[in-house]
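From the shared-data thread, chain only:
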Amino acid sequence: MNDIQHTYDLNGIEELIHILNTHQWYNWKVVSFIGDLGSGKTTIIKKLCESQGVSDNISSPTYSIINEYKSELGPIYHIDLYRLKDIHEAQEIGIEDYLYDEGICLIEWPQIIEDIIPLPYLKIEIENLGKFTRRLHMYEIDAQP
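Structure, as tokens:
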């Protein structure tokens, strides 16, 4: 996969979702989302899930840490590691069970588990360019740093 960069307005997020679907984000077992608080990670995940037939209420798993949704692709796990301090806490909640399950893992704040994410995976970085403008950079990770 080539690196993809796209600048978008939060009000036009449907175009971004179309681009991500065109590049078949769902072919990766793990998709990590990196960006500042309020950058739109959860909004993108919600729209990606909806684009794959999820009809459940899609919300941030900040406190539950993991939400599971049924989709046309099978299970989608929406994981938010913001509240965890380190990889040991992630392992205590069974993160590896999700990483190696048949479902797709969409992970916010994945930095603490990057060493155990199965390769290859898709990394999406979101840069805040202003109140409503963002730049997305999407690329495949196929080797550990």
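Helices lie at 13-22, 41-51, 87-92, 95-99.
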